[in-house]
Amino acid sequence: MKSHKVRTHKSSENLPRADQLAWKIAEVAADPVAVEPAIIEMIGNRIIDNAAVAAASLARRPVASARAQSIAHPLKPGATVFGLPQRQRLSPEWAAWANGVAVRELDFHDTFLAADYSHPGDNIPPILAVAQHCGLDGAALVRGVATGYEIQVDLVKGICLHEHKIDHIAHLGPSAAAGIGALLRLPAETIYQAVQQALHVTTTTRQSRKGEISSWKAYAPAFAGKMAIEAVDRVMRGEGAPSPAWEGEDGFIAYLLSGPKAEYSVALPEKGEPKHAILDTYTKEHSAEYQSQALIDLARRMGPRIGDLNRIESIVIHTSHHTHYVIGTGANDPQKMDPNASRETLDHSIMYIFAVALEDGGWHHARSYAPERANRPETIALWHKISTSEDPQWTRRYHSHDPKQKAFGGRVVVTLDDGSIIEDEIAVADAHPLGARPFARAQYVDKFRQLAAGVVHAAEQDRFLALVERLPELSAQDVASLTFSVDPEKLGDSRARGIFDWAS
């Protein structure tokens, strides 16, 4: 990996293209380095993971709405959408939109956390949609996905967005554009322009994840993927982009990040160096924000030790800056303590999540968020006894570059009614690569089977999984069938109408 310094330059400096971050990203994407077997294996895992959570979310309103929008844009050859018949092909940017929402709706797929946050699996829907539409094979697909993951992870390691209240899809737009460029084997010049254009149109604020969180949290990454496809298409037709997007005098760093005097360091693979970044990422065993993964596991472990939960006087979760200020009491969001809050808001309340996990001894992607579950009087009472506190040691470990030190958990102190204390801590989730039960292919398949049960027929599940097992050898026809279909009644209620189906 080579570290690149990135800062604002005045227009009069005429920063050479070769020194711009977008060009360096484009060179990485255009580098035809082979994808190693361990990377291919993990890409297959994440394709299975995405399909698993998409199956579980098919009937939910935001997913049905996105699918209805996409159905209004048929195109041949086109791309497939989860749940629809394989023969029903849609314009690739709209297929990516529908699939992106299905993948993200339950907050249940992969994650990478460093200087900023990300869900790198969000790169897969747009890259796969373009591969299907353009008739590309499995080797091209893995090349594109490996690149999308690499660029997003490298940007997340080097550039912090959240401290400036910029949403993390500002890293996803460029990474998806780079992945599509690698998929199509586009020249560096084309990828360079597409990456900048994608950055420009996918920069939004973190209000998506603040206060009363709406369904836009699921739509935001799908929007970034859709914009990336459109950006690549425009640039392939000869159009350009705001340049230099990151370093410009009125650009991203100068006015949206740390300002004209700031300097960032972004490490990227050197020429000929394999793209390994996907191996740094991790998936979720539980359908909740990633910082809650380890704490759900800790709640499962602590519950039997505590015994009678009515004896609890208080629970303090000592944890990292991120957990405290984003999903903890440090956020100062009253909605995080409201039993009538949206699912998306409860997903970002570690107080609610820890209370339910203590009571139930686990977590379920649907039952744990049900309104009747959130409104149980005993749950509300316990929930309101829980607070978070930033601990510098957990913040340091959160930001550590040493995988053995990096941590996303915390220390929980439970005070009982007699003054006695029960405490325990956990660094990483059980499913994390360094956790008690790391996920491998068998666990990804189990997750898919569990979430697809009752939604996707067993034979269709088998067909899909068999394709993933042959991922790098798939023909273009095979890639075109890398989806699953369900019976129409499993797709939920899509009777609502919008502009695209006004006359239907």
TrEMBL record:
Family according to the record: Belongs to the PrpD family.
Domain MmgE/PrpD N-terminal span(s) in chain numbering: 20-264
Residue ranges of domain MmgE/PrpD C-terminal in the record: 286-471
Protein name: MmgE/PrpD family protein
Species this chain originates from: Bradyrhizobium ontarionense
